[in-house]
Amino acid sequence: MIRRFFPAALLLLAAACSNPEEQVRAVDSRPGLTVANAPAFSDLLVDGIVVGKANDFVTRASLVEPGRHVISIRAENGAVVHQETIFVSGAMIRRISLPVPVQ
What is the pTM assigned to this prediction? Predict the structure, then answer.
């Protein structure tokens, strides 16, 4: 009788013991940029490189490396409508605000 239950008990014991699970989460502490009042369909450029549509970064930040950057907003027709040099560090979020056009 013990011979019947011994393999089943071993199987049950092995199933009860599981390997530990570990979750590693990397926190990205790079600074970021958000954009306000950009023209529709304009591009956000960081150091001359297009990172996406400027209006995509109204509520979500574009992460950049710490340091000095030239930020440009380029309209759909290719004209640069805003350009500034900024310095970012730490986990700060820098808001690039374009003047609201008078209508």
Answer: 0.72
